[in-house]
Amino acid sequence: MSNTAFNTTAWTEAALNAGKEVQAAALKAQALSFETVGALLGQHFETLAKQAESVAAFGREALAARDIEAAGALLGKGISTARTQAELALAHGRNVASTLNHHLESLQGLAERQAAQVKPVKG
């Protein structure tokens, strides 16, 4: 291929279109990243709200404990609360992993479509 092949109007238009497609894909990836970060923050806040409510309920019960039996029940409640918190943390971790996996699959799809569009221009 001679250097003059690169100076044609068709090649220039193809290169400009490929550049526009790369820019559009980058904007899609950025929007998807912002959406994923928003979803993760929403999950974090939801989990924190559940934990805060659980701790507040435990605190209210602790303040109401007046005798040894109530303290024993409170200890059982504390263990149960800790177990619940651990289960919430595990579920939250799974949600984060699932969200990130979906994000990566979406970015992979964008990259594959972009690669398919750019190959013919290189040709």
Verbal overview:
- The protein is mostly helical.
- It has a domain at 9-50 and 82-117.
- 90% of the residues lie in helices and 0% in strands.
- The longest helix has 56 residues, at 9-64.
How confident is the prediction overall: mean pLDDT? 81
Distance between the first and last residues' Cα: 10 Å
Give the beta-strand count: 0
**What's the alpha carbon Rg, rounded to whole Å?**
27 Å
Low-confidence stretches: none
The main sheet comes to: none
**How much beta, percentage-wise?**
under 5%
What is the N-to-C order of secondary-structure elements (H for helix, E for strand)? HH
What's the tally of helices? Answer: 2
Structural class: mainly alpha
Helix content range: over 70%
Gross geometry: rod-shaped
Please summarize what this structure is:
By secondary structure, this protein is mainly α.
Topology:
Layout: H1 9-64, H2 68-122
Helix pairs in contact: 1-2
Structural key phrases:
mainly alpha, 0% strand, 123 residues
